[in-house]
TrEMBL record:
GO terms for biological process: apoptotic process; glutathione catabolic process; nervous system development; Notch signaling pathway; response to unfolded protein. It comes from the Eukaryota. It catalyses: glutathione = L-cysteinylglycine + 5-oxo-L-proline. This is Gamma-glutamylcyclotransferase. The gene is Chac1. Belongs to the gamma-glutamylcyclotransferase family. ChaC subfamily. Keywords: Apoptosis, Cytoplasm, Golgi apparatus, Lyase, Neurogenesis, Notch signaling pathway, Transferase, Unfolded protein response. The lineage of its organism: Eukaryota, Metazoa, Chordata, Craniata, Vertebrata.
């Protein structure tokens, strides 16, 4: 079984696997439209994590993990809890295209996608609003800023040829907001 990850699974799969390949799936674009009240946020301040939006002209880069034998039930049980129960994601089968030049035919892979029908779905917002929400959110897996920056780093280092305007626009918005936060948090000096 192959499992395709396009969010935190690219750097923290959390399950045993036999091999991994960087590559992409067609027909979807990555969006920070899913709320997270456990891993990267809380009930009071949900974080923003990625889901996939059907988009016939797009492709989304990530990592596919091959799981075999005893790894299969353990990884699917773990991912069901992490992605479906705690995250509100559904599973779909997609065609994964490995980055390798000598790759054979596309590989069928499972992918977890959050749809507008789940209760944690937040939907579209401006890059600035998404960045502002990410800055103030953290959960049991860490700060939401880490999630955004690790995903941007993955794209830069493993998929430098790929474009992800949505991701990098949010990263830019976050960087432009952060200096203001550091400045306003410092105490004013008395004159």
């Amino acid at each position: 079984v192959w499992i395709f990850g396009y969010g935190s699974l690219v750097w923290r799969p959390g399950f045993e696997f036999t091999s991994r390949k960087v590559g992409f799936i067609r027909g979807y674009s990555r969006r920070f439209w899913q709320g997270d009240t456990f891993h990267r946020g809380s009930e009071k301040m949900p974080g923003r994590v990625v889901t996939l939006l059907e988009d016939c002209a797009a492709c989304t880069w990530g990592v596919a993990y091959e799981v075999r034998g005893e790894q299969i039930p353990a990884s699917l049980e773990y991912l069901n809890m992490r992605e479906a129960v705690l995250g509100g994601y559904d599973t779909k089968l997609v065609k994964f295209h490995p980055q390798e030049k000598d790759a054979e035919e596309p590989i069928l892979a499972l992918v977890y996608i959050a749809t507008p029908q789940n209760p944690s779905y937040l939907g579209p917002a401006s890059e600035e609003d998404i960045a502002a929400q990410i800055i103030v959110s953290s959960g049991c897996a860490g700060h939401n800023i880490e999630y955004l920056l690790r995903l941007a780093d993955f794209m830069r280092y493993f998929c430098p040829q790929a474009e992800d305007k949505h991701l990098f626009s949010i990263e830019e918005a976050l960087i432009s907001i952060l200096p203001c936060l550091y400045y306003t948090e410092e105490p004013l000096e008395e004159t």
